[in-house]
Amino acid sequence: MDAIHSPGRPDSHTSKGSKEDPMALNTLPTVSASHNENAAHHGDPIAATSSFEMRKTTSDMRNTRGMLGLHPQAPIDEEHDLAEQQDWWWAKVRIALREPFAEFFGTMILVLFGDGAVAQVLLSAGQKSAPGGDGYGNYQSINWGWGLGVMLGIYVAGDSGAYLNPAITFTNCVLRKLPWRRFPIYLLAQFLGGFVAGPGIRTVPPSPTATAGIFCTYPQPFDTKSGQFFDEFIASAILMFVIYALKDDSNKGQFSASGAWFPLAMFFLIFGIGACFGWQTGYAINLARDFGPRLMSYAVGYGHEVWSAGGYYFWIPIVAPFCGCLFGGILYDVFLYTGPDSLMNQPWFGLKDLARPKAAIMERVEKQKAEGLV
């Protein structure tokens, strides 16, 4: 964009002392004020007037987005931001809630593909018309479905950070200074995305004709309560540890799975967790992927057994992913991560802040404001 600015007129966004906006996108070249001043000087009043009347719609929504805990500047292409169509009411709603909408639809795509794979395998079991005469798919088909769902969900939710999992959002708030103010609205968007993606005979495991497992996870009958918890805990810890490794450009050596390769790497990560660690509990590893569809299955008539099955197993996919993801994130940051943005790289691993929580919170908020994060 510097090429279209007049000499000697520094761009206000890149002036000396300013910091790069961490949420800024790579935007297309757009008309700048200096260009239109030149247009007016050369006798083109229409170009000058029309451009000065235009304003960024995101500027009008900064206060609203701030109240929601989002970054004041919406992640939108600058050229689109200046367009006329952004001035009508729905465009403003879309700008104000751009990241929550992205998390909602990303999570919805994740659950649609995953639950769709489970449904196809379960409901087609024994179908003689299928190739091989024994249904359309097997356990590996389910792993492929969930892996594809995660990969495509990440592409859908790119502008929000594509967390798609409350436990991952929570871990980034604790360890990587993601503003806590974003956690509630991200959690709500992720939960609702899983809820709407969820729904015969409505039966719950361990019934041999159960179909409730299409929507959410249920443990194997032999699995103990501690076994159920640590199955989900370990899978969630692996998930978070590897995600941090994939996103850490300072530790890639000769390889890189970040950037454009990250969604594909996540596909293989989810497929691997399912293939190697998923049988005993169904590898929920995500509150939004399990609790939302479970609530939907209860609403459409599966009964109270969706809560009582497996010895009231339903709470484990809610709690264990938060514990496991936090543990996996701490493990990576303590031993491998060297960046300054981690709590684990502060003196005494940030434990001194526990003695003065109010001051620590205020310092963190002030720093985030200075960096333009909130």
TrEMBL record:
Gene3D superfamilies assigned: Glycerol uptake facilitator protein (1.20.1080.10)
Bilayer-spanning residue ranges: 101-123, 143-164, 185-201, 229-246, 258-280, 312-335
Signal peptide per UniProt: none
Region (Disordered): 1-25
Superkingdom of origin: Eukaryota
Classification via InterPro entries: Aquaporin-like, MIP, MIP/Aquaporin
Location in or out of the cell: Membrane
MF annotations from Gene Ontology: glycerol channel activity; water channel activity
Keywords: Membrane, Repeat, Transmembrane, Transmembrane helix, Transport
GO cellular component, one term: plasma membrane
Topology with respect to the bilayer: Multi-pass membrane protein
Catalytic activities: glycerol(in) = glycerol(out); H2O(in) = H2O(out)
Biased composition (Basic and acidic residues): 8-22
One Pfam family of this chain: MIP
Similarity remark: Belongs to the MIP/aquaporin (TC 1.A.8) family.
Protein name: Aquaporin
